[in-house]
Amino acid sequence: MSGYTGKSIRVNLTKRKVEIFDTPEYLCSQYLGGRGIGVAMIADRITYSYDSPEMPLIFATGPLVGTAAPTSGRMSVVSRSPLTDTVFDCSVGGKFATELKKAGYDLIEITGISDKWTILIIENGQVRIEDADNLAGKNTHDVKNIIGREGSYASIGVAGEKQVRMASIVFDGHYCAGRGGLGAVMGAKRLKAIKVKGNGKISVADPEKLKHAREEIMRLLRASQAVFGEFGLSEFGTAAIVDLIHSRRMEPTENFRKTIFEHSSNYSGYNMKMHYKAKKAGCAGCPILCKKIGLGGEKMPEFETVSHFGALNRCGNLTAIVEANRICDEYGLDTISAASTIACYSEIQGKKPSPEEMLKLLMNIANREGIGDALSEGSFRYASSVGHPELSMSVKGLELPAYDPRGAYGMAIAYATSNRGGCHLRAYPISYEILRKPVAADRFSFDGKARMVKIAEDMNAVIDSLTACKFVFFAASLEEYTKAVNAVTGRQYDVQSLIRTGERIWSLERHLNELNGFTQMHDDLPERFFKEEGSSGGNVKILPIDREAFLKARDNYYKIRGYGL
Fold first, then answer.
1. Cβ–Cβ under 8 Å, residues 74 and 92
2. Tell me: the pLDDT tens digits for 229-239?
3. Residues 441-476: tens digit of each pLDDT
4. Contact 48/516 with Cβ under 8 angstroms?
5. Rounded to an integer, what distance in angstroms lies between the CA atom of residue 515 and that of residue 300?
6. What is the mean pLDDT of residues 290-302?
7. pLDDT digits over 503-540, tens only?
8. Which of 12, 180, 300, 522 could form a disulfide with 292, with the two C-beta atoms 3.0–4.6 Å apart?
9. What percent of the chain has pLDDT over 90?
10. Kind and range of the H or E run holding 122
């Protein structure tokens, strides 16, 4: 199978057994790789709890990984979320996927629970499980220093060890499978780290066609202002959109009570670059290089991180925000859920934390100390435990990211219908409503949004399965990537056949959630968005969402999907 190694790894930590098996060709054909193949592989075990020895944790590459296709260095981590109880996947960059593919493997399936802390080591054709007691209690930077910098590694910090429900898996100290608490799944299995190194080559069916496909994609990328423009992602990272979201009066502030924060320019992409003299970095195989590293080695936070440790907690202190990001990377915490849980706690307590108090709460969460033990369960469980579930700004238990849905109605439908909970990346209608790519849409209207969200959900399922980066699709389209995947695999996909694959993946995820008790009742937003105005200014009025219009749009979405009403 060109584009695939044809071999995968199965690990049983209870038995400390490693098995090499043939990558199922029918799964590659039906689900492509990455997110799709991972979800398909856990389907028959989805009703097990996240900490059951039967629940798999899967690291899956896609057919484009390790090839010349732009942004071909990503992979998906798949399991059941400790935070939401939904089927869950995280798309993650870095070089882990490329090293795994070069080592000769398409994916890793991990089950069982070890009786002691372990590390999985993959070196080309050799795979072994070793004791890792020396890594216990260590955070991700220390793990990297102990196991060495050669190749790539994935590890959990103290938060994952303590099974904090928002714990992340950190790759090479900087790239995170962050959302949904998959670090807690790894912690429950007592798997502290995975180290991988590969020297092999990836087979490509038609290198010449891939070269032409790459040139076409790169031509579109270079012409894109959103990607390579003077104020684009390549220049300033994802925080490039801080000022844009601020100007649209839709930045979540004070736990989504307001929609504008007067000090957000303190942490804009431009200000971070100037203050820290940040340089470009990025994933293997990526020409965009949206990651930013300060002159002193500081890792610049992403947009969601600066906004939530910033506006959501009314903190305009850039130094504190960068430190919060460092703590999350070190301890292995999802920045969105951690910041949102602190904001929820602050509203319930009736006081705004100082930057110092915010950082202390973050450490308490990571270590499950004091109030942090309750907060480590996530905002919905915490808020419910003190009688205020309505103050958790989450959908299906997953805290909402940094786009207030009162300022983008497509985002409201996307949040509500997302299979993994409050997530902006399942559909990302912000592309249409704010960035106005590939076509502009009225952000204060539900007209056409149901179909727009459905198509985007299916397309993004394909992107996560190939596995590519969504930022490329601000410029290129699935048409160009179809040429790339055909050149790599030798298959004859077209855009519609790939979209049908995305629909297949989405429908399977929905079905797996239904097996765990999720219904249409869970496809909803916190009541705040239907009852309270957003704060405004600049001749823009941010009204509450009309609930009847929202429900009508959601019904239209169900009809398009073929769900029963």
1. yes
2. 988 999 999 99
3. 999 999 999 999 999 999 999 999 999 999 899 899
4. no
5. 40
6. 93
7. 999 999 999 999 999 999 999 999 999 999 998 766 77
8. 300
9. 92
10. strand 118-123
Quick check: 413 and 453 in contact, CB under 8 A?
yes
Structure confidence at residue 539 (pLDDT): 73
- In angstroms and rounded to an integer, the radius of gyration of the C-alpha atoms of the chain is 22
Measured from the Cβ of residue 565, the count of other Cβ atoms closer than 10 Å reads 7
- Residues near 166 by Cβ (< 8 Å), separated by ≥ 6? 83, 159, 180, 181, 333, 334, 337, 338, 341, 365, 376, 378
Residues 6+ apart with CB under 8 A from 192: 117, 118, 119, 132, 135, 136, 138, 143, 155, 156, 161, 186
Structure tokens of 544?
């509450």
Using left for φ > 0, alpha for ψ between -120 and 50, and beta otherwise, residue 338 falls in alpha
Nearest partner of 431 among 447, 453, 413, 415, judged by Cα? 453
Domains of the chain with CATH codes: 7-197 (3.60.9.10)
Decide if 342 contacts 366 (C-beta within 8 A): no
Largest CA distance in the chain: 65
pLDDT surpassing 80 at residue 357: yes
Q: Any idea which residue has 């070069």 for tokens?
A: 102
414 pLDDT above the threshold of 70: yes
DSSP SS3 for 88? strand
3-state secondary structure of 310: coil
